[in-house]
Design goal:
This protein is mostly helical and 166 residues long. The chain has helices spanning 9-16, 29-50, 56-67, 69-79, 85-96, 108-127, 130-143, 152-157. Residues 149-166 have low confidence and may be disordered.
Length: 166
């Protein structure tokens, strides 16, 4: 069993619920995307809530801008050059996976790229590499400009201190 790294939520959950470790390579890309969707949304929700108390509908609006398929698809343009060969392979497997569902209000291309994004998030989470997951999320969100006119202030709140706009 791998040793828990700092911030390894998966290892903590496995330990607390007496779950045996499985080889991540045995997981389908859609299984990785399934868990990746949840962990990415948890990260974004955590950041949004910790920025300060607001009405729940405003929290939801700010989170939704960053977790929708179109946003994740756009974020991959920033992330692709930053990925290791193994991470790029996980992304491609997720993007190319045959899914029987499609996101509401998303093109097929956006949905597939978003599935690749989520598979990458799931892979990093199950690897226990929250540092890398956080690094990629910060890079993606810092460069993402929502298409709606209201989203620009949200993007700025996710930047790392000292980070400049591109």
């Amino acid at each position: 069993m791998r040793e828990a790294k700092p911030y390894d939520l998966d290892a903590f959950i496995r330990q607390q619920f007496a779950l045996e470790e499985k080889d991540i390579r045995s997981f389908s890309p859609l299984a990785l995307a399934y868990i990746g969707d949840g962990i990415y949304e948890l990260v974004i929700r955590t950041v949004t809530v910790r920025q300060g108390s607001r009405q729940v509908n405003k929290l939801h609006r700010d989170t939704s801008r960053l977790v929708k398929a179109q946003a994740q698809s756009e974020m991959m343009k920033t992330l692709l050059p930053l990925l290791t060969e193994q991470e790029a392979d996980i992304y491609r497997r997720g993007r190319n996976a045959k899914s029987f569902s499609v996101a509401k209000n998303a093109s097929v291309g956006d949905y597939r790229r978003a599935t690749g994004f989520e598979a990458l998030m799931g892979y990093l989470y199950l690897q226990g590499d929250m540092e890398r997951l956080s690094e990629l999320v910060q890079a993606a969100v810092a460069q993402y400009v929502p298409k709606e006119h209201e989203g620009t202030q949200t993007r700025n709140l996710y930047e790392t201190p000292g980070q400049e706009h591109a």
